[in-house]
């Protein structure tokens, strides 16, 4: 059965997280560069300056983790990649794909009242999320047919 694959990534969080990550790197690099001595007499070494730059990179990396979520769905099942971890779920296990009222993102309903959040389909994305859910449900109907 040839069903068109659905690939979804969040939009708004990417538009916010990328500039914030860049800003963090620039600010911490600038602070590290300007960090030499203070009026209180505290003297900072080269290692302190480097540590400030590394701290900026670490914080920026943490912010960039928010851009990692992705959903790939095809005739075989769903691949849900969230901030940490990726799960492959065959359609046979999927009891539903829902977006509960007030929830920040969609989820895959599994047997025994379990679920997997789909952080790639976020409420803040508005119409993008609605279109993604429609495409996902259409793919499921095509696979089930």
List the keywords.
three-stranded antiparallel beta sheet; 145 residues; elongated; 2 domains; 3 helices; alpha+beta; single chain; four-stranded antiparallel beta sheet
Written overview of the protein:
The chain crosses the membrane at residues 16-35, 50-67. Residues 68-138 form the Low molecular weight protein antigen 6 PH domain. InterPro entries: CFP-6_PH. This protein has 145 residues and is an alpha+beta fold. It has 2 domains: 11-66; 71-144, no CATH class. It has 3 helices and 7 strands. It has helices spanning 12-34, 46-64, 127-144, and strands at 6-8, 70-74, 77-81, 86-90, 96-98, 105-110, 114-122. Strand 6 (105-110) and strand 7 form a beta hairpin. The mean pLDDT is 91.
Helix and strand string, N-terminal first?
Answer: EHHEEEEEEH
Strand order, main sheet: write it out: 1-2-3-4
Q: What structural class do the secondary elements suggest?
A: alpha+beta
Q: The biggest beta sheet, please?
A: 4 strands, antiparallel
CA(first)-CA(last) distance: 10 Å
Number of discrete helical segments: 3
The radius of gyration over CA amounts to 21 Å
- Which percent range fits the helix content? 40-55%
Number of strands: 7
Average pLDDT number: 91
- Spans of at least 5 consecutive residues whose pLDDT stays below 50 are none
Q: Give the total of domains.
A: 2
The dominant shape is elongated
Strand content: 15-25%
């Amino acid at each position: 059965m040839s069903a068109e694959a659905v690939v979804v990534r969040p939009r708004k969080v990417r538009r916010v997280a990328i500039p914030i990550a860049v800003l963090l790197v620039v600010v911490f690099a600038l602070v590290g560069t300007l960090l030499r001595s203070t009026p209180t007499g505290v003297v900072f070494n080269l290692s302190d300056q480097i540590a400030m730059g590394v701290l900026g990179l670490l914080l920026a990396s943490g912010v960039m983790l928010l851009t990692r979520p992705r959903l790939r769905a095809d005739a075989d099942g769903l691949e849900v990649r969230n901030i940490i971890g990726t799960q492959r779920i065959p359609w046979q296990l999927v009891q539903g794909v829902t977006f509960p009222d007030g929830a920040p993102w969609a989820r895959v309903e599994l047997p025994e009242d379990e679920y997997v959040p789909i952080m790639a389909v976020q409420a803040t994305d508005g119409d993008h999320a609605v279109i993604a859910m429609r495409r996902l449900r259409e793919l499921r109907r095509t696979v089930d047919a």
